[in-house]
Design brief:
The protein has about 375 residues and is mostly helical. The protein has 14 helices and eight strands. Strands 1-2 form a two-stranded antiparallel sheet. Strands 3-8 form a two-stranded antiparallel ribbon. A two-stranded antiparallel ribbon has the order 4-5. α3 packs across α6 and α3 packs across α7. The longest helix is centred in the last third of the chain and has 16 residues. This is Peroxidase.
Length: about 375
């Protein structure tokens, strides 16, 4: 891995960005174009511009998907019994340890992409802040995604996360819900954060020799299609020859269904919440945004952080239609798992069944940020 121990030694020695949460009047930033309630936030505008243009390249692509995944894998590394720092950036600083955890398979790719940017801006943002900032900025590259708040001021991480704190796609629903419950998340919040993040995501390394296999038909749109596709009967499978560990057969060729997603969509404790998001774009975006913000405060004291949400670019409005059944599919192909509500009426896409293309993989961006 390109991005490794060099970061660990460097970032641990850097001071935090000073903040002053008491300021209320907007101030003109040194760049002469931006204003901020707190002058400390001014330093973040160039960081945001850099990662938008040179890391995400203004696209809801592989790097944006990876940055969102990193938010979760870093933040969930905390437990009331095992310890850990939560959303503190330990997954970057102590990557030599945390990347050995099975649940972090594939995280090295996004760390390689983010690493040069984190190093470049390390005097401005701590690792924990950078991961949360990049995650918030990644979302607004995707049409339909919410613009979530960003708070600055996380301390440097002190140690690696304990192992076995990140849920895996092979886990059963009880294990997943208990892991989330230990850090204060309800089953409904679990569905929101898992389903929402997988709306703009794909599988790397789960399927051997295949990268960027989408979880639904629309991986570049933050939409509710994921909540339909995961409930379809498993009649087709990806072109790799069938399901692997943590993966189940899907009804949409070219996509892959995580076993954990399929179970959450059908379990009595979560099925009705899962179905309730179908074609409820605003509800899904709001619930997801609240859950991600809650993740960002794990291990942190919100009152000691500074609200720098104004540095996050505006979200891209919804520019797509409602969720649909894929060609040849209908309500007869849905595993109706909620006993208290009727599944929404959806139209079926015209034409023969097609294969969803893999998500294009990001090229190395280290040269653009060094």
């Amino acid at each position: 891995m390109v991005f490794s121990s060099a970061l660990s030694a460097f970032v641990l020695a850097l001071p935090l960005l000073a903040v002053n949460a008491a300021r209320t009047k907007r101030s003109l930033c040194p760049d002469g174009k931006n204003t901020a309630v707190n002058k400390a936030c001014c330093a973040l505008f160039p960081v945001v511009d850099d990662i938008v243009d040179n890391l995400f390249t203004n696209e809801c692509g592989d790097s944006a998907h990876g940055a969102l995944r990193l938010v979760f894998h870093d933040a969930i590394g905390i437990s009331p019994t095992a310890g850990g720092g939560g959303a503190d950036g330990s997954i970057a600083t102590f990557n030599a340890t945390e990347l050995t955890f099975p649940a972090n398979l594939g995280i090295d790719d996004i760390l390689d992409d983010l690493g040069p940017f984190l190093l470049k801006h390390a005097a401005t943002v701590s690792p924990g802040d950078f991961i949360q900032l990049a995650g918030a900025v990644s979302l607004v590259q995707c049409p339909g995604a919410p613009r979530i708040p960003f708070f600055s001021g996380r301390a440097q991480p002190k140690a690696a996360s304990p192992p076995n704190l990140v849920p895996q796609p092979t886990d059963d629903v009880t294990s997943i819900l208990e892991r989330f419950a230990s850090v204060g998340f309800s089953p409904a919040e679990v569905v929101a954060v898992v389903g929402g993040s997988h709306s703009v995501a794909g599988a790397d390394d789960i399927v051997p020799n295949f990268q960027g296999i989408p979880f639904d038909q629309t991986p570049s749109q933050f939409d509710t299609q994921i909540f339909v596709d995961v409930l379809l009967h498993g009649t087709n499978f990806t072109d790799n020859g069938g399901p692997q560990s943590g993966e189940s057969e899907t009804a949409v060729a070219g996509t892959v269904r995580l076993q954990s997603d399929g179970l959450l969509a059908r379990d009595p404790r979560t099925a009705c919440t899962w179905q309730s998001f179908v074609n409820e774009q605003s509800k899904m975006a709001e619930a997801f945004g609240a859950a991600v913000l809650k993740l960002s405060f794990l291990g942190q004291n919100q009152h000691e952080l500074t609200d720098c949400s104004e540095v996050i670019p505006q979200a891209i409005p919804v520019n797509f239609g409602p969720a649909t059944f894929p060609p040849t599919k209908s309500i007869k192909d849905i595993d109706e798992s909620c006993n208290t509500a009727k599944f929404p009426d959806l139209r079926t896409q015209p034409g023969p069944a097609t294969t969803i293309a893999p998500i294009p993989q990001a090229e190395s961006t280290s040269g653009s940020s060094s």
